[in-house]
Design brief:
- The relative contact order is 0.17.
- A hairpin with a 2-residue loop joins β4 and β5.
- A three-stranded antiparallel β-sheet has the order 2-1-3, covered by helices on one side.
- About 40% of the residues lie in helices and about 30% in strands.
- The protein has three helices and six strands, in the order αββαβββαβ.
- It is an alpha+beta fold.
- The protein has one domain.
C-alpha cells in the first residue's frame, strides 16, 4: 500500500512540475522588431518590442513612409536584433542574437550586391 501511495505522490509531483514548466513557457512573451527601407531615397524606419511580426513591420514601414513612398521591410526579428547595411548601389540586412552579429550579417549580404557598405540602422528587442 505504501509503495502505491509513493508512486501516486511521485506521479502527481511530476505532473505538477511539467504543468508549471509548460505554463511558464506559454507565459513567456515574444518581442518582434523590423527595419523598413526605401531603396530610392534611403529613408528608413524601425520598430522593436511589438507583440507580433505584423505590428512590428507595420510600424517600421509607417515610420519610413513619412519620408518615402516605396518603403519595404527587408528584415524582421523576434527576440533578437536586426540590422540594415547600405552601400553605393544596394543594401543588405541581417539578424542575430546580438547587435554585432546582426550587423555582421547585414554587411556580408550588402557586400554581395555592392561596395562601400556601412550600417545604416540597427535595433534590438528586449529579450
Amino acid at each position: 500500500m505504501r509503495a502505491l501511495l509513493a508512486l501516486v505522490v511521485s506521479l502527481c509531483l511530476t505532473l505538477g512540475q511539467a504543468e508549471a514548466q509548460t505554463t511558464g513557457q506559454a507565459a513567456a512573451q515574444d518581442f518582434y522588431g523590423a527595419i523598413a527601407y526605401s531603396p530610392s531615397t534611403g529613408a528608413h524606419g524601425w520598430s522593436f518590442d511589438y507583440r507580433s511580426r505584423n505590428e512590428a513591420e507595420n510600424v517600421a514601414k509607417s515610420n519610413c513612409g513619412k519620408h518615402a513612398t516605396d518603403c519595404i521591410v527587408p528584415i524582421w526579428f523576434r527576440n533578437a536584433c536586426g540590422a540594415l547595411a547600405v552601400g553605393s548601389n544596394g543594401y543588405g540586412s541581417g539578424w542575430g542574437t546580438s547587435q554585432k552579429i546582426a550587423e555582421g550579417y547585414a554587411l556580408q549580404v550588402c557586400g554581395k550586391h555592392t561596395t562601400g557598405c556601412t550600417i545604416k540602422r540597427w535595433a534590438c528587442t528586449t529579450r
